[in-house]
Amino acid sequence: MGQKLKIAGWVAAGALAGAMTTVSLQTVARGAMAPLPLEELQQLAAVFGMVKSDYVEPVDEKKLISDAISGMVASLDPHSQYFDKKSFKEFREGTTGRFVGVGIEITQEDGLVKVVSPIEGSPAFRAGLKPGDLITKIDDTAVKGLSLNDAVKRMRGEPNTKVDLTIFRKDESRTFPVSITREEIRTQSVKGKVVEPGYAWLRLSQFQDRTVDDFARKLEEIYKQEPNLKGLVLDLRNDPGGLLDAAVAVSAAFLPDGVTVVSTNGQLADSKFTYKAAPEYYLRRGGSDPLKRLPAALKTVPIVVLVNEGSASASEIVAGALQDHKRATIMGSQTFGKGSVQTVRPLGPDTGLKLTTARYYTPSGNSIQAKGIVPDVMVDETEEGSPFAALRTREADLEKHLNSGQGPEVKDPGREKAREEARKRLEEEAKKPVSERRPPEFGSDKDFQLAQAVNQLKGGPVLVSKTLVERPAEKKEN
């Protein structure tokens, strides 16, 4: 990005902590520090001194300070975080799409670790972990009370070492142990294929270092197989986000040159910036532009973008840019609603701070923080509907979530009622055989939303949802 990226540190547009946390690359000097509140700092020092001298047993001074910093940052919002030596190393590893662990994307729910998705081909995938599984214990340690970062630390480790997980599977109402051998995980963030003559499916599961190169390579393969492409389905379902520059690049592949992709705005002057569909806004210094290899027809081919409640941050940037420029039809369900930007600043050689420094805005100037992208066409997950959508966690459900900054948030009075109805349906669903409860794989011939997207591209009938509606941003208690 060269001098175009002005936000200090590494800019992140990812939604989920853990196995797949990601950042972008750029560091500039910080400005002058604001005046410090001396009286409050004296109180902090006094408490530190009392704990050190009066606590029932000796305490580790460095751990006390580290925990104090962690608590201060964690109180801000769900995405700000302090990194100690080990977690900072793991965080940076995540940007490459390579790390040693079990291979799951995770979030938190009710104080437990929830599996968002096992990474295909990973030890967790082979062990049979499923989306929605709750991890209650890691080895002999109960997960309740652990931060997400601490849970990740315990699941990471050296190659060929074992970790024992205790899993609670809601839909089967059972708890069971799983022993998993850690290995190096190499994630593949881009998939694609021609689904029928003239129409292709391209899936991005994450925005990583290699995503733009893999994205361009897969599109070249598709065009080689189908030179006269009539329509493309860009699948961003359950894509938790990742690198901001990768999101700008993917958007630029489809948009006219030079148009706005996304803008950011925060307290710092350097956080007020507009990213455009041009190489200088997404290329790393000294890197070549993989988008140059793509056919010109990609700028005009009809596109449907598939999104759902798991589409967050960087994937929302892409969906919002293509929607605002009327370049694509957005289909599916309302997205996660993470419209904030995190900057990662080193605090020394091996520690760092991930801090929310800006909100981002779609080209039309809309903040999607705690709201999300509302599809042009609401489409259910299956022909029978989306009965469990109300149970899915979104940004507005997270404690201490940042509001949109664009007017007051309103409470959805039907939200809890919908959740209760979904819980009852889930209980009924749990009584069915496992084979009948397994959701169809994205991109398969049983993928209902993909079939509707292709119908949209062909000008055919689309089964629009009769139940999905826009979920307004919920009121945040201050």
UniProtKB/TrEMBL annotation:
GO molecular function: endopeptidase activity; serine-type peptidase activity
Region (Disordered): 401-478
GO CC aspect terms: outer membrane-bounded periplasmic space
Biased composition (Basic and acidic residues): 409-448, 468-478
Stretches that traverse the bilayer: none
GO BP term (any one): proteolysis
InterPro entries: ClpP/crotonase-like_dom_sf (IPR029045), CtpA/B_N (IPR055210), PDZ (IPR001478), PDZ_sf (IPR036034), Peptidase_S41A (IPR004447), Tail-specific_protease (IPR005151)
Matching SMART domains: PDZ, TSPc
Domain called PDZ: residue spans: 88-156
Keyword terms: Hydrolase, Protease, Serine protease
Record-linked Pfam families: CtpB_N-like, PDZ_2, Peptidase_S41
Matches recorded under NCBIfam families: prc
Family according to the record: Belongs to the peptidase S41A family.
Protein name: S41A family C-terminal processing peptidase-3
Organism: Pseudorhodoferax soli
